[in-house]
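Q: What would this chain look like folded?
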Amino acid sequence: MATGQGRVKEALTPIKPTGGGTAEDHGPPSKESPSVSNAATDPYADLHQSYGRCLRDKDFIGRFYDVFLASNPDVPPMFARTDFSKQRMALRRGITMAIFHAGGSRVVDRGIDEMAGVHARGGRCPVPAALYRDWVASLLKVVEETDPEADAALMARWREALGVVVDTFQARDAAPAAPDTAERSGARGLFSRVMQGLKA
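A: My prediction, written as structure tokens:
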């Protein structure tokens, strides 16, 4: 996972909308994110290690999408016009962010908060609660299939960590929307310009 000030992180579940918006709409910023898990300070260091083992299989992310798209008939339409080359990179980064968030890292707070806002009922790409369940179940299935060291205890840890992220998203969804302000609108415009600059 990339590090350093000014790097932009992608979303946990960056679902493409069916009208307007792009896959990049679901890549919330994070000022920086740690790249190395330290077992002495990160309570989910074992999950970073498990995820690293999964990523040795170049088909891991693609396999996840195969499983997720088949998990619920409501899922495929949300990805109908998605650029999956970008989507796969978004998910790869987003899972790392999710593990750090579950471990209590404050570095990813901004990114997680913005992801939750995007996928809340009033966000650009609202996600029904049932799809979080299917997303988690699909990821757990593919991790268990892919990580050669996966066992019941490790999978329980994965479920626990992903539950923290889902709880965060659903809590944000239940909260009243913050009023828009000139400062917030300006910040969004700045972020869009930064995104365009990084893509140039």
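The CA atoms of residues 185 and 191 lie 10 Å apart.
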